[in-house]
Amino acid sequence: MTHNKNILCIGAGYVGGPTMAMIAHQCPEYRITVVDINARRIDQWNSDTLPIYEPGLEELIRATRGKNLFFSTDIAGGIRENDMIFVSVNTPTKSFGEGAGMAADLQFWEATARQILQYSESPKIVIEKSTLPVKTALAMERILNGTGNDVRFDVLSNPEFMAEGSAIQDLKQPDRVLVGSRENERGLVARRALVDIYLHWVPADKIITSNIWSSELSKLVSNAFLAQRISSINAISALCEATEANVDEVARAVGMDSRIGSKFLRASVGFGGSCFKKDILNLVYLCRNYGLDTVADYWEGVIRINDDQMARFTRTMLKAMFNTLAGKKICLLGFAFKANTGDTRESPAIYIAKNLMAEKAVVVISDPQALRNAAVDLQDAQGQVSYIEDPYAAAAGCHAIAVMTEWDLYRKLDFEKIYKIMLKPAFIFDGRNILDHQRCFDIGFNVYPIGSPPLTRF
Ligand code: UDX
Ligand code: ADP
Questions:
Q1: CB of 415 within 8 A of CB of 427?
Q2: pTM of this prediction?
């Protein structure tokens, strides 16, 4: 079959893979190729065991792979043969030099820009999908158009707003699609070409356009606002614990104000994921760069509260368990940074596990999807940690359970059975407030929720 548009995506990760699968599914007349420097990742995309877990993804891949969706390591060929190139390579926080721990590490992104320049023989529309600091598109334009070679490049910003665990649903019915471009004639033509792709399945009124810098900044700001809501409710959870108010009741009352809204007000052990911390640090770095220190301090506070929430959680465990965790066996239910994903990047569970091990506790980790990643995250902790998928087997012989991820299966566990196989006094620390606390208390547990008084027997 001949395809009437050839699209390339560089970077076959959590963003590139699902996004391209959705475009391939919605636009059967287009040919989509996804390339990556990581050959193992590409092999996994071409196998029955995909490199990431995402509900609905397997079905999408099965319906499109080999028809109009292809995974390959041939980056040069991909660049030559395609006229639209999405860039979704990773942009982690810099760990060295100027801006270490704050600024985005743009080395993968710039390497990609240079590869595009090297292999292009015809005009290309280059689309930033990775989250990048504001004005990165300008640098991309400079690299691509600054060499005097005849090929013309138009750079667009099209940030991805999907969340892991609901990526396929978010891609299918996005709240909005944002396309930023230069506002000159060429920019508007390129913008139109990208909008045409989304019009295959997204209603026109949900596709918004802006100048390129607004688009880049909107992505950082969306994530900063979302994280800020979580830090706001988590800060209040600390106050609730001190005053015997109940954070879920407060969140409900506050969230029913339609100006505030009820979403993203679930108090927790802390937010994780590859985006929130990285994007806020990026925003903070940008503000400092422009001399806006008060603004930078304000946003940095969102991260400070999150760090404090995680530290508070382990402090609560330590205090509740008679100020010593040495030699005690603690089961972490969940290791993914949220439910319905195997992703553990920046997961609070990493921090909690390390804190508990620093107190010489023995940690047993259970998770239906994230054990492979957990073992990589905790590879330095051999001996003090074990991995058991079955939650009952994981809890057996433990002094305490700490819920780290809001997997549905944990709500439905038989806690009477678990109580019987644990050491007494048995503790539950519910870092996601998903369990029936009163019932667990009635069974015999000492229960420590987030943001409400503990239910204890002493
Ligand atoms: C986020 C944004 O939601 C998404 O738009 C963007 O494209 C990428 O970053 P993601 O990190 O995948 O998505 O998941 P999200 O659902 O936002 O959750 C992030 C973290 O916040 C998780 O650890 C989650 O458990 C936590 N969270 C979320 C809370 O603690 N409380 C809440 O009320 C909501
Ligand atoms: P995200 O969550 O943003 O999708 P991931 O880390 O899951 O981030 O995916 C980014 C992907 O980009 C990785 O698979 C990585 O191997 C790939 N990548 C990084 N640099 C390049 C490059 N220069 N060319 C091709 N792929 C790259």
A1: no
A2: 0.95
Strand order of the β-sheet with 329-333 is 385-387, 362-366, 329-333, 400-403, 427-430, 446-448
Q: Is 275 a catalytic residue?
A: yes
Neighbours of 61 (CB within 10 A): 23
Domains of the chain as residue ranges with CATH: 5-202 (3.40.50.720), 216-458 (3.40.50.720)
How far lies 203's CA from each of 120, 160, 166, 215, in Å? 33, 17, 20, 19
Residue 230 in tokens: 């979580």
Q: Is the CB of 160 under 6 A from ligand 1?
A: yes
Ligand 2: residues with CB < 6 A are 10-16, 36-38, 41, 75, 88-90, 108, 111-112, 130, 274
Q: Considering only CA atoms, which residue is closest to atom 9 of ligand 2?
A: 13
> Which of 275, 287, 331, 440 is an active site residue?
275
Residue in 8, 36, 72 to alter for ligand 2 test, most ligand atoms within 8 A of Cβ: 36
Task: Choose which residue among 75, 90, 282 to substitute to test ligand 2 binding: the one with the highest number of ligand atoms within 8 A of its C-beta.
Answer: 90
The stretches of 244-330 forming alpha helices (DSSP H) are: 247-255, 276-289, 293-320
> Ligand 1 atom closest to Cα of 270?
30
- Token pair recorded at residue 255: 């969230």
Partnered with residue 138 across adjacent β-strands are: none
| Ligand index nearest the alpha carbon of residue 87 | 2
Dist. CA 352–CA 269, nearest whole Å: 9
% pLDDT > 90, the chain: 88
- The model's pLDDT over 15-46, given as tens digits with 9 standing for 90+, comes to 999 999 999 999 999 999 999 999 999 999 99
- Two structure tokens written together for 143: 């690299």
Write the pLDDT tens digit of every residue in 82-120: 999 999 998 888 889 988 888 888 888 889 999 999 999
